[in-house]
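Q: Sequence in, structure out?
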Amino acid sequence: MSSQQLQFLSLQKLPARLNAKEAAWLLGFSPHEIPILMSGGLLKPLGHPPANGPKYFSATIIEEYRRDEKWLARTSDRIVQFWRTRNARKSGNIENQQGLD
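A: Exactly. Output:
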């Protein structure tokens, strides 16, 4: 855990708006997993940011998601599904994608 991450997680009061890295830290995911959750419709940024622009998330919503076991299970399944599909495509083994829907 980086000192920056440790410092952020030890804040008494979070900012109202979190960037993708801060949201990932708070949820216990890697920053590179945030776009996967967004593409799966499990995490929505504030407003209507451009596709290549920075994304911000509501700290209140992120806190709710932290306590929601069902949401955490769905997000974990989505990440596993993403990597399973990607690895199957990479290896050319389409059969590995069965049972993902």
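The two ends are 34 Å apart (CA to CA).
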